[in-house]
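Holo prediction. Input below; ligand is adenosine-5'-diphosphate.
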Amino acid sequence: MKILSVNAGSSSLKFQMYEMPAEEVLISGVFERIGMEGSLYTIKLNGEKIEKKVELKDHKRAFELLVEELINNKIVDSLDDIAGIGHRIVQGGSYFDKSVVASEEVIEKINELSTLAPLHNPAAITGIRAAQAVVPNALQTVVFDTAFHQTIPEENYLYALPYEWASKYQIRRYGAHGTSHKYISQKMNEILDREDTKLITCHIGNGASISAVLNGKCINTSMGLTPNAGLIMGTRCGDIDATIIPYMMQQLNLSPKEIDTVMNKESGLLGISGVSSDSRDIEAGIKEGNKRCLLAEKMFVRRIVDYIAKYYVELGGCDAIVFTAGIGENSISVRKDVMEALEVLGVKLDDEKNNIRGKVQKISTSDSAIKVYVIPTDEELMIARDTFELMK
Ligand code: ADP
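Structure of the complex:
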């Protein structure tokens, strides 16, 4: 059975097609600059990458071209071979604790939740509508980034603000990267061959979050109402003293939108280093003796360590810490710095084993009190799996 996994942004559309249940990737790609000049798409097939410059006036056009590619490359014989299409949704609010079929009622709810994710939810709906128009017979499903975090207890998801704000204005912790945290925690449990585990899952990419997972269920996560909470990220500040916001709005005469841009796009690694939001540039800067790159890296690592320590206490110990996403999978130095700072908890790094990128590997020594793993994430596969399950 062929299932498409789709991630639609406001001007992009990423896709991956799977043969299920074999979980084999048949083709993948990305449409970029949709509705803009210089639009193009790239597909990956049989280890080859092909780029085509084409006009993409909207997401529907992207879907039409996607289907043409599937047929021309003999991935499918006809549209009817595409059994299901799973769409990634950033914000599911308190309504969705699992993936569901994209009924009109569900789409309406996703639309309502756009106030909490104004850039992402409307774009995802555009993707669903385009898929419905081009592949009407496929089952459309939605997979939420927030769903895995819906098991977080009230004392962890509420903010100490007026109590009614949660019910009246939906002000609470929703978290993000849930599909990734779920994937790596399931994979970790498989490796440990147990379900009754205490895991700390670290999704450290340009966006970054850490979750505490008890017996397969999330009990806390570092992102909040929005992704700009918790860790220091590429361009996001993460946790700060909230009063800085009204204070600096006054000082610089900034609008809410302007201060939001500073905190989301001009802070984090970029804001501190003044060089780049990309951890590779920060690492290069450190090698060249750039002090602000070093400072940015120290702050970045400190915050990760803080959250791991917090969740260690909250979980009452920890069986395994898992690193994933761009930095977690690839940055040997960030992993090393984090693990060395955790030595007090009995964490012991195996330097040789840590010298890897992008593959499943245990990177702690055999006598480490906590096992530490790198597990590459696979959100697209999770979307395909959930869609496959919903077809039954
Ligand atoms: P997102 O999906 O949030 O945009 P990613 O998970 O792709 O982000 O992570 C992007 C980050 O991963 C960047 O900071 C990038 O520098 C980092 N990264 C990717 N490859 C490497 C590498 N080989 N070494 C160090 N960092 C890397």
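The chain has a mean pLDDT of 97. That is the main takeaway for now.
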